[in-house]
Automatic annotation (TrEMBL):
PANTHER family: ISOFLAVONE 7-O-GLUCOSYLTRANSFERASE 1-LIKE, UDP-GLYCOSYLTRANSFERASE 72B1. It comes from Glycine max (Soybean). The keyword Glycosyltransferase applies. The keyword Signal applies. Gene3D superfamilies: Glycogen Phosphorylase B. This is Uncharacterized protein. InterPro entries: UDP_glucos_trans, UDP_glycos_trans_CS. Belongs to the UDP-glycosyltransferase family.
Amino acid sequence: MENKHVAVFAFPFGTHFMALLNLVLKLAQTAPNCSFSFICTQKSNATHFNRPHIPKNIKAYSISDGIPMSHAQLANHPIEKVNLFLKTGPQNLQKDMPQDLLIVGERETMFSRTLVSLAKVLPQAKAVVMNLFEELDPPLFVQDMRSKLQSLLYVVPLPSPLLPPSDTDSSGCLSCSKSVAYVCFGTLVAPPPHELVTVAEALEESGFPFLWSLMEGLMDLLPNGFLERTKMRGKVVSWAPQSQVLAHDSSGVFVSNCGANSVTESVCGGVPMICRPFFGDEGVAGRLIEDVWEIGVVMEGKVFTENGVLKSLNLILAQEEGKKIRDNALKVKQTVQDATRPEGQAARDLKTLIEIISTTS
């Protein structure tokens, strides 16, 4: 079973979960080079994966139980709970995939057709370059891609934070104390107005210092008096030097849409993330951040709620429970630094890319 990957779907009711988990525990100990993805509901996983000595080659992945937030009373109706879980099955398997990959027939978009065309021609390319570090992609994914492509190279345009960070702050944006929440959703899209208000209210309620880079045209959407009430511990600017912010020692968490560049800069800075994906590959990035690298959390339902933002800020910035996330972010940062050294994989792939470009007629 060497280098194999086994997906385990556990029926989350009765004794099915424990029976299957006990079997997987035995398999994982017998086959340490085999990876097991244990897929069940959040409630079941949280209950049973807190036990000590879970083998490192078992990873729990949580899916929805299908019970609406407003139907807590269903806890006393086991048959209804089973029906809802089975009904939500297809959505569980699709929710982290970019929507354009799921659109077929008359609902196809130009973007979805482009993705299909790319999938057909990529195997013909002499090399496909990934804007990520190989060490951060799941090994089975790398192995599968390498079996389909002529050459797969991981070459990241490295941001300046990989250089020793400076204590100076010419921008005036980084003068806050430690454990600052940095908020930015990029320049392409933004959360809907009610979610922007929710983020502002959560930042105000949390009491944490913050820096928010918000597009100029969205400033008027902030709650009345918000800027005045938070001016002693927070700052809202129309632009911030993001890579410098995330490299600064004061940055404690990055609230983001988890776009590719933002993820790279946050990883390089060792900063945990609170993610609210919008579209494209951001949902996949959120899954990597929360479930694979374990350096952050994704908003429940991929929507900002005041309670959700408060809970996430407290988890990462203040609670002992969030120490694992904070420690993992630093470990990933070290992995990235190792990869970018002259003898690292990223440096070697860059040399290979230069050779391919130089010798291709």
